[in-house]
Amino acid sequence: MKKEIVVNLTTLTCCYFEEGQLVKEYPVGAGKPSTPTPPGSYQVIEKLVFEKAGDVDLGSRRLVLSSDKTCLHGSWNGPVEGYVSGGCVRMYNHDIEELFAKIEVGTPVMMIID
Hints:
L,D-transpeptidase catalytic domain-like, mainly beta, eight-stranded mixed sheet, two-stranded parallel ribbon, globular
């Protein structure tokens, strides 16, 4: 089954597709103006699970992308929506947990500016 994630950095949404059909849309946060999230085409290269909050708030799940500049991750403490991150795409923990379960390493991720 072909799966894809598209993050719209203008509307601050993360859309999950299966076979070209939108399955779910999630609200997200993106990089602050001083640390913008880079648009481009990436792949999920690693999936990480965190059982508790650490020094850096990556939430309960992290999808590591084929970019050294960004990833998709949850948040224990927020804020989530808006231009609030250091360049990553930030999601609510319950949302990243749902998405995390549906995708595999190798899933394409597009970051677009609408």
